[in-house]
């Protein structure tokens, strides 16, 4: 893996200013305050959201371990801490989780990160499943839904009826069926408005977006302009180095690259399990 990192660093160094010159969503300068404003009105708004069904047996079956601390949650808690450092440093509020192809482990990473963030009680976070072609967050979390995010984006169903809340500070916006016209929906003005609505009404510190793979469809390309940064998930033993480099360039042209998670490594260590990042 050191070779992989060295080669990536070399490729990055050879690139002429690529990431540095990438267009950026205008920073809103809203770095998470250390003593956050605790408004009982916002807490009340959160309380009105329907609750997520907690089914830890299903979660563990789907490799979701971060609902409680401990050794299994450690890689995700570490990833949360590293991401949080960047989020605070740069004033980011929207982070997409992206990969080149399907099955890299994006949804598993987003769901685990969300469960880890749910234990960070001083932060209000949402996880949004925007892999509209192959949604999986609802299945991973064992949720049965009557409505979907397509209906929410089109204004046919109220966001507040559709989403689920875990505790007082973590929200999930999911689908259990594929949504029609995913690329058009994701790039529509309604989607941008919806994200603004979530941030304002629920006073979110961070929204995590589970995305479709970059190399499969153009859904993610347009959407990445709406986020502050992207975390790239790599299927470590299967993704060719060349493809990682191409993906990183593509993402860097659209938004900030928050880091790379090397998932499904055949080696692990006691601190990071199978998750490694190097930023
Ligand atoms: N670290 C891991 N080790 C082994 N299997 C994993 C790991 N992360 C994810 N998986 C499995 O890989 C498959 C694809 O994961 P998923 O998160 O749905 O990928 P994506 O959202 O990128 O398509 C799932 O069956 C999941 O359980
Ligand atoms: Mg997925």
TrEMBL record:
Q: Which domain of life is it from?
A: Bacteria
> Biased-composition ranges for Low complexity?
8-21
Keywords from UniProt, A to Z, are: ATP-binding, Nucleotide-binding
Region of interest (Disordered), residue spans: 8-30
Q: Name one Pfam family in it.
A: CbiA
Q: Where is the CobQ/CobB/MinD/ParA nucleotide binding domain?
A: 95-270
From the UniProt annotation, give the residues forming the signal peptide: none
Full protein name: CobQ/CobB/MinD/ParA nucleotide binding domain-containing protein
